[in-house]
Amino acid sequence: MYKGFDVFFEMTDTARSIPHTLTIIVPVYNEEANLARVEKELSAFINEAKINTCILFINDGSTDASQAMIEEICSRDNRFRFICFARNAGLSAAIKAGFDHADTSLIGYIDADLQTTPADFHLLLNELEDFDLVTGVRQNRKDSFVKNMSSTIANSIRRAFTNDGMDDTGCPLKIIRAEAAKKIPMFKGLHRFLPAMILLQNGKIKQVAVQHFPRIAGKANFGLANRLLGPLSDCFAYLWMKKKYINYEIGKKG
Length: 254
Prior knowledge:
This protein has helices at residues 35-48, 66-76, 91-101, 121-127, 145-162, 178-181, 194-200, 224-244; strands spanning 22-28, 53-59, 80-84, 106-110, 133-138, 173-177, 205-210. By secondary structure, it is α/β, with parallel strands linked by helices. It has a single domain, classed as Spore Coat Polysaccharide Biosynthesis Protein SpsA, Chain A (Alpha-Beta Complex). It has a seven-stranded mixed beta sheet, with helices on both faces. α2 (66-76) links the parallel β2 and β3 (80-84).
C-alpha cells in the first residue's frame, strides 16, 4: 500500500463518477504508432494501482491518426479521457492544460513514447508522502550519444541556474500534488523547471531512479537545438520569474 493515501477525491464529471486520486496526463503529438502500447501499459498500471487513477490525453494538435485512436481508447474505457488542441501549442502548453483540467489531488505525467514505464509510478508514489513533487531519474539511458550528451549539458546548465539539486529534470515521469501544480505560472519551456518552481513555493522535491527504454516507434519531436539553446534561454526567463515570484502564507483570517 502506498504511504499516506487513504482518502479519495471525487471527479467533477458526473459521467465518470468513480472516485479518483491520481490523474496521469499524457501529452500526444503524432504518436499513432505508440498509442496501442500506451493504452495497454497504462491500463495495466491502473488495474494494479492502490489508488484510483484516470488518464488524461492532451492531443497537442497531432496531424496523424492520433486523435481517432485516442477517441477509440476513451470509448472503450471511461477511465481514459482527452483534450484535443485546435492546433499545436507545444509541450509546456500540453502540461499546463493537464494541470488546469485535472480534478484530482495528485497529477502524474508521462510521455507517449513510453521511454519510461507507467509501472515506475509505483516507485514515485511510495516516496510522495513527505514531498510535493517526485520526479524520475532515468538510469542506463537508451538514447543516442548525442542525445544523452546534450541532455547532460542542459541539465548541468539548469542546475547551475536553479540550484534545485535535480540530476534529470527532463525525465518524463513525475507526480505532483495538484495544489502545487496549479500554482505554477507556466510559459513555453517551463516544463523543464517544474522542480525549481515547486521550490519557489517552498515545497519539497525528491528524485527517484527509474527505468529507461529505447523509443521503438514514432519520431522524437525534439532536436539538439531544443535541448541546448532552448533550455539556456529559458534559464534567464526562470531567473526573472524567480525574482518576481509572489509567495505568501496566510497566518490568520477573520
